Amino acid sequence: MRRDRSTAAGQVRRLKLESKVLLGNMLGDPAERIIDVYLPAGHDGRGLPFLVDLVGFTAGGPAHANWKNFGENLPERLDRLIGSGAMPPCVVAMPDCFTRLGGNQYINSIAVGRWDDFLRLECVPLVEETFSCGGIGRRGCFGKSSGGYGSIAHALLHPHFWAGAACHSGDMFFEWCYLPDFPRLLRSLAKHGNSIEKWMEAFYASPKVKDRDVHDLMQLAMCATYDPDPEAYLGIRLPVTMDTCEIIPERWANFRKWDPCVMVEEHGAGLKQLKALYIDCGEIDQYNLVYGARRFHCALERLYVPHTYHEFPDDHSSVDYRMDISLPILAKALSA
Prior knowledge:
- 36% of the residues lie in helices and 16% in strands.
- The chain has eleven helices and ten strands.
- The model has no long low-confidence stretch (mean pLDDT 97).
């Protein structure tokens, strides 16, 4: 719902991409993907900086352009920020990266798909070529939760490609982010004979998707993302034992190498190449992510990486208002 009707409304253009890198993924997800692209009022995109919106788990990029009852969708927020002069005009892509497992971490996985490659090799080039925007030094990514993880992972791995990144409440410090939920997942699997396949069949057959089931699905998705097994059903194997919930060291090691708090030790210095890096998290985040954010912030300070870090008095839910801070920071830096 537009909060400021005095500002001119931009437009959203829809592109379709026939992905080559997603063909044959183990989940059987479609390779054809929608990319909704926001263009500011009075602009066709030419010469503007370019941002990619990485959505959180259970969402898809086009959902961010949906009408909202008591809040703004992303295009409406951009209209207000740009129209008020809070941020310079920019092109923003909202790609559909939803998967059968409920979401995406935006990295390459032999099970979930080559989503890192999809973004850098297909999505970004298509949008930049279509609208003559972005380019080296003028493109960035942002997101919240799993999208925040994707943004910070991409910044760590590809600082030569992205010139800016914003991570809102992103997944990090996996010991407190993911491990606490494995006992609940095991109890759920036990009701289906400890069979991931039977659990998945029951999930999709249920007439009602329950919140606790979505959280279990998310745990399975993380297994397929960080430590996929090409011989397992949908590539999913757990980093804990089914009976005693003990950590399997080699499995958990594969998880941890994707933890931003671990990745920063090898790749953190590369973040100095960015024009802007923004990180925030709620002080009472119910997924314990504030502890990872603090740890990551401390690592950046130790490495002398310029960045903006904020904690705010809220939890993990409905915090899109934080983009009022991050998006102007990114757009101004990428416009320079």
